[in-house]
Amino acid sequence: MSLRPPRLIEAVLTWCLRSHAAAEPIVGDLGQEFCDRAREGSRVRASIWYLWHALAIGLPYLASSGREALGSARAAGVDLLWRDVAGAVRSLARAPFFAATVVLTIAIGIGANASMFGVVDRVLLSAPPHTTEADELRLVSTEGFGSRSAVSPQAYSFPDYLAIRDNPVLVGAAAYRVPRRWTMGTGEAARRVLVQQATASYFPLLGVHPELGRFYTDEEDRPGAALTAVLSHGFWLREFGGRASVLGETLHLNRGRYTIVGVAPESFTGAELRAVDVWAPAEASVAAEGQAANLESRKSWWWRTVVRLSKGVEDEAAEARLTAAHRAGVLSAIEAGESVSRADGGQGALRLSSIVTAVGPNASTASSMSIWLGALSILVLLISCANVVNLILVRGIEERQSRAVHAALGAGAGRLAVRSMLEVGLLVGAGTAAAWLLAQWTGTAIQSLLLPELNGVRLDDHRRLAAFLAVVGIAATAAAGVVPALQAARTAPGDVLRGAGRGNSGSREGLRAALTFAQISLSLILLAGAGLAMKSLSQASAVDLGFDPEGVVTASLQPAEGVTRARRAELYWEIAERLRGAPFVEAASVASGTVPLAGWQGHPSFRISGGDSLPTVEGGGPYIYGGTEGFVEAVGMRVIAG
Question: Which residue has the higher pLDDT, 89 or 507?
Fold first, then answer.
């Protein structure tokens, strides 16, 4: 993608030069120089260079144009405020080390919050990108199916989806599967891409519009229909260079050839926050994979469902109607002699939850982690504010005589307080600008840490981040400036000029001691939280999984067109046999799924002679992993009996 300067700084510079005749060329030349520097060197250094020159160009012109605009008609209060601003700037310029220390402290405190904001905002506060009227969208979860008593979002079969699709409490419904890795291409050029199978109703239901082309239709989402595909915006840029001519080209995915009909908008992830490369029509792609029977089986419960409620329908009423429709469908299937999944028996219930996946029964680990880190970042900000107050109070001791002179010359307590708040405001403003840059540089790393499934998807919203920084900056100014402002307002010029200004030293020292205590207390809380997190991670890494994942490697095959199922099985056996003879392989096996605790596993029903049923296993199960000879050794398990 093309480089461009930091958007907030560019917008501020444009606003400062809005009345300048050469505003557009100046901004354009500065942006071009930024791009050249970023390509030749570091984007970080280029951003710092751009910020410095934007300030050097914009602020002086804003100041001069502002004074000229006010002219003789400006109010005396505005003129006085302007003088106070200029005085605050001169005062800070005389103490550059102090100013730099405060700006850096504020930048760290606000930057930590700004870096976390993108993740917290996206996971906790916002619906998936590009969804419209998201308050009417609901994810359907199942409850009470067989041995799974917990609420599960991925526990639905395609016939179950069809049973509720046309219910009158819904405007519409769509089924989709969690993105899975498919093979794109053949031979040495083959690679894995993330493909999500979704019904044609998926995109209209969410209210998204294509960036290019169109989405596939109901007619194209039928078994046997010509295969079509929709590309994600990021995949389109990476693989096709953003060419508009991509429409009509063919993608070789797994066993089928898909015609590209459209491109989704930037950052669109679907109903959930999961990265996707390609969307494929559900029924057509399942049939193309030779799994058409799964569309009719109630034992294939790998589908998820999203619905849009009709206007005025409450969640409780919708749950009751959808549960009744689901149970009726299951009972009808049982009467027809069909086998249903997990001993449902028509007793399971459906639950609706917000499209914001961090809300409701499906709150993710990422959301819990982002709440915890958000709280820690607020603690960092509070500690930073306490540091700033202490620094300003210390500097206030040095500035007492200067304030006393101003007071003796007629400056009232209110003006001294305003002057102090202006100094803090300027420092916080500079720190907030630095925090913006810090958030831009660290936001991607935090997203990769908390939401690895979204790597490559841009989630930040510059307007929301700017609004957040403005609110935090104002709050930090108030928190860090009110105490020094009150201290400045209480300056007694006579006592200070006579050298008897020690009358308030006791209260000042008491205040500083209280602030120091607050800093230490907050720091201890921060350290305790970090210590608990490290202990939890250490304990998690020490959990006995029942097998040794170290050195275990899995692989799957995507045979060429025309290879039969029998020949495919032979290929797996031949490859396993060859691997057993390799010097770097201890054991090899052909498995029906993958290693334990990951991927697919069997979930059968067990019966014991003489017993009616087995007790429910907490957390689900029992599960079955199938493998040929050598499976136990290959995954690092040990046999404890037999």
Answer: 89
